[in-house]
Amino acid sequence: MDPEIKTLLEKNLALSQENNSLLQKMNRRAKWGTATRVVYWVIILGITFGSFYYLQPYINQVISLYSKASSTLNSFSGLGR
């Protein structure tokens, strides 16, 4: 085999191996990025629903209080007619 072709093939092999290594690193980082994003959104949604579950009795009390106040105001406005 011609020495010039052999050196070109060796350089090509070295570049291919380096390229393969870089592509594997990029693929690994993409997978970790996706996993991190999924964990991030699971935490955000978990905190949201957890806080709603925790605050639900207080929210129901506020709604009940508003309902009572509204009915009381409506009864007072009916007296003036």
Task: Describe this structure as you would to a colleague.
This protein is an all-alpha fold and 81 residues long. The chain has one domain. It contains 1 helix and no strands. The longest helix has 77 residues.
Percent in strands: under 5%
Which segments are poorly predicted (pLDDT under 50) over 5 or more consecutive residues?
Answer: none
Mean pLDDT: 92
SSE string: H
Give the total of beta strands: 0
Structural class: mainly alpha
Secondary structure layout:
Layout: H1 3-79
Short key terms for the protein model shown above:
single chain; about 80 residues; mainly alpha; about 0% strand
How do you describe this structure in short?
This protein has one helix at 3-79. The protein is mostly helical and 81 residues long.
